[in-house]
Design a protein that fits this description.
alpha+beta
Length: about 190
């Protein structure tokens, strides 16, 4: 039986000639690959990956809930002044009419921009989210802001704004001092 199979195989491959090339490309011949474009795309994807803010499960807050958070190390007096709206607002982000995905990108970029420009106090207007007809999606953006600001290392504290700054539909944000600002303060105090 083994002889039958061997002879059948020999008959089938009798007319085959060996290939001249040692390499065989099975893929279709396509256009040249632009490696610079590929590298740019990879860099853009890498930049997008830096945004670690989650869109997954979040703890739901109600439209009329007060948002507040203070990282350890923030003095009580500083937090009180933030809560009372006594610091000058140096930057503002308005998220009205944004989806959660758009807001996620905007918040991440906003905080990054604030840090690059030595901004210490900012305000984010997110709306209360009480007009949404579906009770399950009420205050969705507000709930995400509450989580995202806690997850950003640059955010030292935040609190719902005073009525004249947007009340429960906005939040004051206290950001870390940059190394440059810290050095400037140190030099200013040394000259006294």
């Amino acid at each position: 039986m083994a002889d039958d199979e061997t002879s059948l195989f020999a008959q089938e491959v009798a007319g085959i000639k060996p290939l001249d090339k040692s390499e065989v490309y099975l893929a279709k011949k396509g256009p040249q690959v632009d490696f610079e474009e590929r590298q740019k795309a990879a860099m853009i994807a890498k930049e997008a990956d830096k945004n670690h803010l989650s869109q997954d499960y979040i703890e739901k807050v109600e439209p009329n809930d007060v948002l507040e958070y203070k990282r350890s190390g923030v003095q009580d007096g500083v937090f009180k002044r933030l809560r009372q709206g006594k610091y000058g607002i140096e930057a503002r982000l308005d998220l009205h009419n944004h989806t959660v995905a758009q807001a996620r990108e905007q918040v991440y970029q906003f905080v990054d921009d604030c840090m690059r420009n030595d901004i210490r106090v900012a305000i984010i207007v997110h709306g209360k989210g009480e007009r949404t007809p579906d009770p399950e999606t009420r205050a969705m953006l507000k709930s995400h802001i509450n989580k995202w600001l806690r997850d950003l290392d640059a955010v030292m504290a935040f609190h719902s704004a005073q009525r004249y700054h947007g009340g429960l539909g906005a939040v004051y944000v206290l950001l870390k001092k940059t190394e440059k600002a810290r050095l400037d303060d140190w030099e200013k105090h040394q000259k006294r």
